[in-house]
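Continuing the series of single-chain predictions for the mutant panel. This is the parent chain; the variants come on the following pages.
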Amino acid sequence: MSSRKTSVFFIAAAGMLLGGCNRDHIKSYTIPKEKTPSPFMGQMPPAASGGMPEMPPGHPAVGDSGQMGMPGGDTGGGSAAAAENSLTWTVPSNWQPKALGTMRRGSYSVTADNQVGDISVFVFPGAAGGLVDNINRWRGQIGMTPLDPSKAEAETVAMKTTSGLPLTFVDLNNGSGDGILGAILVQGDESWFFKLKGPSALLAKEKSAFVDFLKSVKSK
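Parent structure:
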């Protein structure tokens, strides 16, 4: 009887031990609720190796002044186009062309009896100092005293080109063998200056050709 009870006890104990071992393998897990991603996070491009986000194909590079500059900004150098004359003229056949230099729009020389005269054409914006100031500048170039403004009209001749452009003509002689034949033409917002400077004897011979030159001036 005691032996039988002992066997039953061991069988029951073994069953309890095995049952306890099986319960150790049963575990419960709590799965956290997935967070809703921020709408901005989903739109942010992945970072490139340089640390800046990669942009879609064709997007201008951030910080590229050539692409992202202000409208009308200077995107580079470039030389300005050479200014074109708004007037044209016919040069006498005995005048020889010379280098224009940086200021002249026309540059010629004329020779007669071993004397040389210089012909120049200049243009400046606006009134360029006015009629009297410019005539006095020419007078100063050949050693003449300034002209009184009240006498300017008496020292000038109003004329027109063949195409109808108005000119103011002057014939200056310093009494010492040098002189200037000059004309001023105001065209739009420009003032044009035509001048023949040289010995008085040469100017006397070339005056007719110079006047014909002036009359040939016309707008393009």
